[in-house]
What does this fold into?
Amino acid sequence: MTGLALDSTQLDRYSRHIILDEVGPAGQQALLEGSALVVGAGGLGSPVIQYLAAAGVGRLGVADDDEVERSNLQRQIVHADADVGRPKAESAAEYVRRLNPDVDVEPHETWLDAGNAEDLIGGYDIVVDASDNFGTRYLVNDVARLTDTPVAHGSIYKFEGQATTLRPDGPCYRCLFPEAPEPGEIPDCASTGVLGVLPGTVGCIQATEAVKLLLEAGEVLDGRLLFYDAMDMTFETVPYRRNPECPVCGDEAIDSIEGIDYDHGCSVTAD
Amino acid sequence: MDVTCEVVGEGTETLLLADDATYADVCRATGYSPHEVTVLVDGSPVPEDAPVESSEVKVLRLIKGG
It folds into this structure.
């Protein structure tokens, strides 16, 4: 790839990428030809959407069925006061259109479920899991594995965050957390609170991983979970391995998500 | 038996457990329900009802916020 496909405006816009040896014109072209689905346009999804759009990821899907609430604005920085009441997917898409005309943004005002996940996730090069519930997280993991789609995962709680990257040939989220807790067992941000800047840090890590996946450069958080404590300002890496008995990526892996109840425990039962 | 347990993000402590303790007992000894965490031995989760056979474990909390 010579980079000749970049026009003069793009050479200017992405000049700080292009002069990096690790990116260069070919890498920037790869970003412009790449695609990413961001599941969730909330706290984590906001910086992910912003940085992937700024980086020139050519096709950016945003899946969220929620509407912007005023209590979101302390951390969901892709939305503004005037967006309260609007669909988050459309609000985020409008932000992207204003930021970078190179990006073809695709808002999906829908709840990701077992009926639409394969079509949605399979239509993109990578998926960024910025969701806020276990059902969606396990669904993203399972469908991404079945469609050979890498996942940049992130999650947050009060002052701490976790990030890991799931490649098709590496361990999956179920290798680390085999089953989800029942609904209500783990508190959410609405009931416990969350530091507003926290998803900014974790979302930026996810965006970094997403860009590296599209560039096929660097070392991603494959088989490593990064734990971030904002109060202590510490990062810890927890290594984990592929589980041969994992029902989704192990030796006897499933070939469809049929029968998995993503509303209750997300367990995979044997045939 | 003594088990060195790191709760990721909280620190490391030595747990004194019964000889027939399970990994669920490890969870409870750290103040968590087995549904809230995963116990890792050498980078792999272990079943909560399995007897404790390792002297070093990591406990990792599940979080879901986005």
The CA atoms of residues 75 and 159 of chain A lie 13 Å apart. The longest strand of chain A covers residues 151-157.
